[in-house]
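Journal club side-thread
Mid-discussion, someone asked how the predicted structure for our own chain would compare to the paper's figures. Pasting it here so we can look after the session.
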Amino acid sequence: MDSPSPTARSYVSALTLPARRRSALITAAVVAAVIVLQWLVLLQYQALEASRSERAFARTVDQATVSLIQQTVLYQNAVLGLRAHYLGSDEVTVAKFARYARALEIEQALPGLRAFAFNREVSEDDREAYVKWVRKTLSEYDPAYAGFDIYPVEPGHTHHVVETIHPPLGNQRSLGYDLMSSEVRRLAIARARSHGFAATPPIRLQQAPNAIAVLILAPVSTPGWNGHLSNQQTVAASFLVNDLIHTAIAPALRRRFHLQIVDLGSEEGLDTFPTVLFEDDAINNETLPYRQMLHRTHIYGGRRWDIRFTPRNAELHLIPMPVIVLLMIGGALMAGTITHLTQQRIRRAARNQALAEQALDCVLEIDADGVVRSADASTARITGMPPVQWEGRPLWSSVVEEDADAVRTGFGKVVADGPPIALECRLARPDADPRWIEIRLGNQLSKRTIGAVLAQVSDIDARKQAEAEIERLAFFDSLTKLPNRRLLEQRAEMTFSAARRHRGRAALLVIDLDGFKQINDNAGHATGDTVLATVATRLQLALRDSDTVARLGGDEFVILLGQPANEVDVRAAAGRLTRDLALPLNVDGRNWFVRASIGMAMFPDHGTSFAELLSRADAAMYRSKRSGSGLNTMAGPLP
């Protein structure tokens, strides 16, 4: 009989092994299979985490790039706005230039911008006469111009001189600097004239020679210093690149990458020598699972900037190696560890998703009773109040009393499974003025991983102030701070409506100043503006709080009298105004005299609409002027 083959003998031996040994073999096979499976899963997990980290870094890069570009656009818009100011004005004096620059509030609205400048084209033949003109004319505005001169002394070419700069503090060294003495600045001037806006490659400023800066320019057409119209001037601003970076990119974002900005040359590619505009401190020699550099390109004022981002660390959330070893050794520990890490990951993803849906600025976690459980670290920056002043207190306790009920009611609606809502309110800060914030509330109480109402808080104080300023500009005269015609007409219609209901009266007085033109001609518009502001103050002091005085333009004012008893009261009011305005007006130590010609019209005797009464009062005023200065005339009866 033939004997069994070796393979058959091995199979039979395995079947006949003791149960313990067979179990050990099966366990070893399962452990080996689990180890192989976990190794494959680990490799896949590492690849997914690396991919996620790369995508997160790309989003960070895009966010930083957008912030940089937005900041440079703000600088560009400021220069183009200054250019529009010049182009829209018949004459821009040093004082008007400084007033425009101050109105922009560089430190608050345009942090990083160093200064604005007005640069004038001067031929070599006119150099001496121009310098004398500047010293004589502009020293009346600032004594610093008494020593004005063009430098560096390089005769033989046309000069492009920094004539005016703001703010002057810290920038005096730039006054009189000839931009044509620098090849870089000369090329930028030429490009600005041909394209309307230009930026220089990296330069060293006169006032900050140890830092890299960029000069931006735009051409303007203005009357020349010698009275001839010239289109060779430019307006400019400068910024330090380091200031631009610190202004545009938040510190928390900066810590995620190493940043380098390289000027690759002009947009047309005429110069091919890349120059480093900015570079962070050196990258640490750290071992990272991946290392990549992302590039973004920004065309600015004809210059091509290559913005280079290198991650400082990899945002990988890998399972620690000791845990991986334990996972491969024991199935139970593996299951427990994976469950723990999975729950951590699920909670982070759920919370981040909920917050992302509300476009976070800073976040408060609030329980169902409205008490703030926690506030994140950015709360102090956004609200001006540290987290400790929020936590443990009802959300509405930090709001001014007038807004607290609206916040409490809105919170109640959200808790009652209402949709997310946004509330605008003012914070009652103990040591500062109230600050406007927007609170967006979302109910996450039913989510086990969050279990709170999330409040996204945004600082909208600047927007509210801007809205108030826009409203003020729409309804008030910028010089006298009086209501303009638009607001006057609204108040008049309300006054006439009340008069109709109560069978009362109202009156319109049109006032024209006699002698004001002579003040403008003899002393200039600045003195004339001060006289108008003083007249406005006198008119306000002479009237009741229920009356309205408005400026229609020039030296013409209109007064709305609410509920005068009769015509005698109106004439008496006009007489008081005439006497008050006849008193001397002291401006800069000199007395000026004006008289008022007043026309009066009464509601409903002379009309029932604002337009009718204004027309009748205006006609009466002109009869006063024809009859003699300083007279008051009542409108005639209706035909």
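Post-session note: The two ends are 147 Å apart (CA to CA).
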